[in-house]
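Consortium newsletter contribution from the modelling node. Members have asked for a concrete example of what our holo predictions look like. Here is one, prepared for the nicotinamide-adenine-dinucleotide complex that several groups have been discussing at recent meetings.
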Amino acid sequence: MITEYLSPPAAAARSSGLQTALWNVQQTAGRLGLAKDITRRIIEPAEQITTRIHPVTHDGRMLHAKVFLVRHNDALGPTKGGIRMTSTVSLNEITGLAMEMTWKTSLIGVPFGGGKSGIRYDPNRLKPSEKEVLIRGFIRGVRRHVGPEIYVPAPDMGTNEQDMGHIRDCISYSGAVSITTGCFVTGKPVILGGIPGRREATGYGVVSTIAAACERLDLNLSNLRVAVQGFGNVGSVTASLLSQHGATIVAVSDISGGISNPDGLNVPELIEHVQTSGNVKGFHGGTEIPLEEVLEADCDVLVPAATHSAITEENAGRIRSRIIAEGANAPMTPLADDILRQRSVFVIPDILCNAGGVFVSYLEYTQETQRDQMTLEEVQHRLNHRMKSTFEMVFSHAQKTHSTMRQAAMDIAVARVRDGIIARGLLP
Ligand code: NAD
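And here is the predicted structure:
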């Protein structure tokens, strides 16, 4: 396994999220001049679990799902990362995402490590009651790997606030208590100890970083023309907030297809359409386009907010935006990254751009641990401040070292993890 980790073939650097994560960390280790032992200590996941669950639905049907949980690195704190539920999720994908979480928590400066979990099942094939059974089955299956000091899950693709509520209930129910000591899961409904603004936090943070980039690049947020790939939690909140700031949302896609309107899509109406019909297809306020064309829309800012490897060396040359704000994790392959760097596209890297979710999860964690309650205003103020100050730190480092925003963000994040490992005395 480790040799595979230490030498990703250059050609493979264009495909999976794990390969992208490996490529990025190896480049960083080279720039930081890390010794082989410490590079290996930083790259290898602490724990990788694959298990199978077979929960039974209320009408007597057995569901079969493979589940994965990876704790990548806990040098800076308990591992943190969402639960992805898709029909294709794999151990490799979860390992790459857990590794990204290690850098993200480190960069945004919260005392967590990186983790992630996955349930291989198409959530669109489940009725709400069946999804609840699957989520409870998942938590039963991985229970001993979940806890405030071990791994604290949250929502990711295919899971949401309601699912986190069921996890919260499942854990306190198993201990026959109403509340738990410490925070076992974030992104819960507010009524169960969740925090106001968590659902919107990632999109809110994406917008904070776009605003910070506009200040640096001398652009006006309200004049921006924006295209958004993926219209789930992150994509829809980002589009909604940007349009509230006066930006024009010219194209949007989800798994059902793309929709465009050069004069601007009416985002509240589009959200309502998605809530009633399930996806963007059929929206009357724009023209239907193939979903991959959204990435190539004529715009100032492109927000990939769907899945990994959407931008490859094949389509990178056709991207027309000046800024790419990575709402999704690893939406761009290393070869695409290189092409865009040569074309001077300003990329706000995922570990910075979409870190708002984990930052507010940290606020939820501290709130629950201290039995405190924060208001939406406090949460948004702290989130905006942290996103902007982290953007500035990365921007200055990039300027000083003549590197890209991704290289600067990775250098800071990986160096902090290294320092944590050294401070703990975990090296020979
Ligand atoms: P979600 O499940 O709410 O939404 C995903 C959206 O992407 C859906 O609209 C889906 O139809 C669309 N989609 C899937 N494949 C597509 C394709 N090929 N082309 C166009 N659209 C496609 O998920 P989410 O929580 O919004 O997460 C989106 C991305 O953001 C993921 O990469 C996730 O890891 C990342 N992220 C999410 C959070 C969070 O707090 N939810 C935090 C950090 C990063």
